[in-house]
Amino acid sequence: MEMSDRSPRKFRIVAAWASSVCLLVYLLISLCFTLVYGGDVDSSIILNLNEFIPEGNVIVIIGLILSAVAYIGTYPFTVYPVRVAVVTILKPKRPEFVGVITVTVVVILTYIIAACLPDISILLGVVGAISGSILCFLAPGGFNVAISKSKRLFAPENAKYTSIFMFGCFTLVVGTSVAAFQVVDYYLP
């Protein structure tokens, strides 16, 4: 539906349907796993599955199947903005080809990270450190500098925004370093 006659209205309808279906699936997943595990859940539900899948626990298997459906349904939501951003920034002669390469690289990197780092709490720490710094400090400071008269980071009238931006750089480095040390500690206890 979204791919033919594109319009913001059609996109909103598709996004609303997809989000609703994903929400319903996630609610069913949480219900299945809550019935089996209660509050005794590891940082990644996948770590809990090892105990129950060989037994053939029907509720766990239903939850696992629903998890696969949810991952397949939501993964494009995370990859599509990356593809659009790369194609928009690079403005290549063959945007379709660059889009395919971008998606392929993102999928491969995601798989490598998932295979090498099975504990999702560490990964969420890295994502939180990076996105928190960008959303709270770097983006607001950078945007305000970009819309200022001088458009220069170190201009006197941008001192407040520059300090916010610099603090964002500091939190980005510190937060990412802490998350990186957690990764190292995970492999070298």
TrEMBL record:
Its main location: membrane. Keywords: Membrane, Transmembrane, Transmembrane helix. Coiled coil: none annotated. It is found in: Membrane. It is a multi-pass membrane protein. One of its GO terms (molecular function) is L-amino acid transmembrane transporter activity. It comes from the Eukaryota. InterPro entries: AA_transpt_TM. The chain crosses the membrane at residues 12-38, 58-77, 97-114, 120-143, 164-184. Residues 6-178 form the Amino acid transporter transmembrane domain. Signal peptide: none annotated. GO terms for cellular component: membrane. This is Amino acid transporter, putative.
